[in-house]
Design a protein that fits this description.
Elements: H1 2-47, H2 51-73, H3 84-99, H4 105-127, H5 133-152, E1 162-163, H6 178-200, H7 203-213, H8 215-220, H9 225-251, E2 253-254, H10 261-274, H11 281-298, H12 305-313, H13 315-329, H14 333-339
Antiparallel strand pairs: 1-2
Membrane topology: Multi-pass membrane protein
InterPro entries: ABC_transp_permease, LivM-like
Subcellular location: Cell membrane
């Protein structure tokens, strides 16, 4: 009798063990990425390299913006060339309010999110009535409108940009301290990744991915895919707005270039490099983008002077070769290739 019960109990136990092992394998790459990010302040302090904090904080902020874009690009199949507009909205919210003597970080964040959500709602309602190339061009057009709007604001620096004299004031934190600012950026990035993980695994995420693969079937099943896509677009924009608020505090500067189509293209490239439709792929893509840019533009290698100068001047050409190689030989992006199939979703 006992042996019979044991035989009946064995398969569920084996299944649970296998499921647990699979979950650990899926979580391991993400844990490794965040562990490495947590160790950066320790390494910077021990080696006396505070420059690393600013560099990696910039990577995380751009990675956060790419995570927001990936929600609509990777999971929703909506190619937006205007998401840098929301990065600029976040940075200019900090800059303009600071210029008028408002230094509360909570006010900066609330205003940025309110403006970003309102803009994203209007832009989303217009853009999502189209698809394909029309969607891409309309998002690009809106970004260029805000880019020229920022240039026209002569009282806020115009084409020269706006200097932000003070960091946002956050209760319990001093953003003047690079270590505290770094930990704040890391916490926001982790929270955004956790939110996207829950969304992608929920009914919302299933409908969003289904609308990317077969929108007609999803509509036939009774799902209002326009509402789901609009909600995803607005949420994506708000994540990028938060990245813009952090970027304004990191650079202490708000520039119209933050809204340019080239920066939107960079965010798309980060998603592609790291791996679209993966939660941490955009972060890995942002790291590859920024580190390669820093490396090629400074060129520390012992090369003949003319060759080094040529690479420094035309580093984008070398970067283009790297992108082509990733697209050809790592179809799922750098993170997808490193994490393997088990980690490709997270």
């Amino acid at each position: 009798m006992s042996s019979t019960l044991y035989a009946k109990d064995a398969p569920p136990r084996v299944t649970n063990i296998a499921a647990g092992a699979k979950a650990i394998r899926r979580a391991a790459p993400a844990a490794a990425v965040f562990l490495a990010l947590c160790l950066v302040p320790v390494a910077a302090h021990l080696l006396g390299q505070p420059f690393w904090l600013g560099l990696v904080a910039r990577i995380m902020i751009l990675g956060l913006a790419a995570v927001g874009l990936n929600l609509v690009l990777g999971y929703g199949g909506m190619v937006s060339l205007g998401h840098a507009m929301y990065l600029g909205i976040g940075a200019y919210s900090v800059g303009i309010l600071s210029a008028h003597g408002v230094d509360s970080g909570l006010v900066h964040l609330a205003v940025a999110l309110a403006v970003g959500a309102a803009v994203a709602l209007v832009v989303g309602l217009i853009c999502l009535k189209t698809s394909g190339m029309a969607f891409i061009m309309i998002t690009l057009a809106f970004a260029q409108m805000f880019y020229f709007l920022a240039i026209s604001l002569k009282q806020y620096g115009g084409d020269d940009g706006l200097t932000i004299a003070l960091h946002s004031r956050v209760p319990g934190l001093s953003l003047d301290d690079p270590y505290q600012f770094y930990l704040l950026v890391l916490a926001v990035l982790a929270a955004a990744c956790a939110l996207c993980h829950r969304l992608v695994g929920s009914r919302f995420g299933m409908v969003l991915r289904g609308s990317r693969q077969n929108p007609r079937r999803m509509q036939a099943l009774g799902f209002p895919i326009l509402r789901y896509r609009l909600a995803a677009y607005v949420l994506s924009a708000m994540i990028v707005v938060v990245a813009g608020v952090l970027l304004g505090n990191l650079a202490r500067f708000a520039s119209p270039s933050y809204m340019s189509w080239t920066l939107s293209g960079d965010l798309v490239l980060m998603c592609v490099l790291g791996g679209m439709a993966t939660l941490l792929g955009p972060i890995v893509g942002a790291a590859a983008f920024v580190l390669l840019e820093e490396f090629l533009s400074s060129m520390p290698l012992e090369l003949p002077g003319a060759a080094a100068d040529l690479i420094r001047t035309h580093w984008l050409g070398v970067f283009g070769v790297f992108v082509v190689a990733v697209v050809l030989f790592a179809r799922r992006g750098l993170y997808g290739a490193l994490a393997g199939r088990e980690g490709s979703d997270g």
